[in-house]
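Workshop exercise sheet. Pairs work together: one partner reads the sequence aloud, the other fills in the structure field after running the prediction. Swap roles for the next sheet.
Pair: D.N. / O.F.
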Amino acid sequence: MTWSFPIGRLLGSELRVHVTFFLLIAWVGLSAYDSGGAFGAAWNILFVLALFACVVAHEFGHALMARRYGIRTPDITLLPIGGLARLERMPEKPGEEIAVALAGPAVNVVIFALLFLLGARIGPDTLSGVESLSSGFWSRLALVNLFLAVFNMIPAFPMDGGRVFRAVLSLWMDRAMATRVAALTGQGLAIALGFYGLSAGSPVMVLIAVFVFFAAGAESQDVAMRAVSRRLVARDAMITSFETLTPEDTLNSAAQAVIRTTQHEFPVVDTTGALLGFVTRAGLFAALAGDQPRTTPASSVMERNIPRVALTAKLDTVLAALHEGAPAVAVCASNGIMLGYITRENVGELMVIRGR
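Structure field:
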């Protein structure tokens, strides 16, 4: 989501737009211009904007229901293939997860009902001409909202129906296994959807299939990782063999450390061994690509807000800090001396070694 930018806040969540969303707008406008001229282009762009307003409402349905269970939604991002509400955590009680999952499609059903009561009509002509201006703006919008509700309820992860499916499975099996079954179902659907998109010449359908396939796999890995983390502590996962930097080391010294090691993060410690921050490889490369001289202290580009935990801290606490965007979590003694650190990558390696 590094290519997204905020456009405001609404109901306690930051609303963001991914830059590729504007490629969709441009594509819709150009396609409509060829067939309907400037009026057709403007009308279709307006329709897409109205549609994505409904998508935002869908995502806020999830966010507001999650808030009832004490779960915040830091941001909602608009993508060309829809919206993405980033919950700080997923509810793990089956009943709560079902309620949060159903809240989004329920919003689309309500929008459809309101438009229908206000005069929108869906008939054979609307179904066959959904891409045509002759179908009527509000009738097309009502139909698409109905489609969004139905499509999202397909029981395949990571769609809302897949989350309901996972929650129901969780009543009879552990959450990690339930997620794996729902994710495999979602990936099977994605493969079928991808073949259909290729045969129908629909790049949007192929894009959705790719997103569903990888999102399902990522969610399955994340849940499996969290299941392992509940049984382990920070001591089990921390990296203890690593190279450090001092506040006096330069960008050039840090660059040489990157070359001679496999580290992506370099702790900066003082003479007592207390942690000051981390220089990440990405931050270092950005500084080297800029105008800063190589004699600049590497500490000038280090990240200072590094979470710190004790040796006996539960590993799921560490994962929560990594999920918030920290490049690493430092494991420190009671006197502040750094003993090791943990990254998402080495937690993943631990998960594989432990056999999930």
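Discussion prompt: The CA atoms of residues 139 and 257 lie 62 Å apart. What would you look at next?
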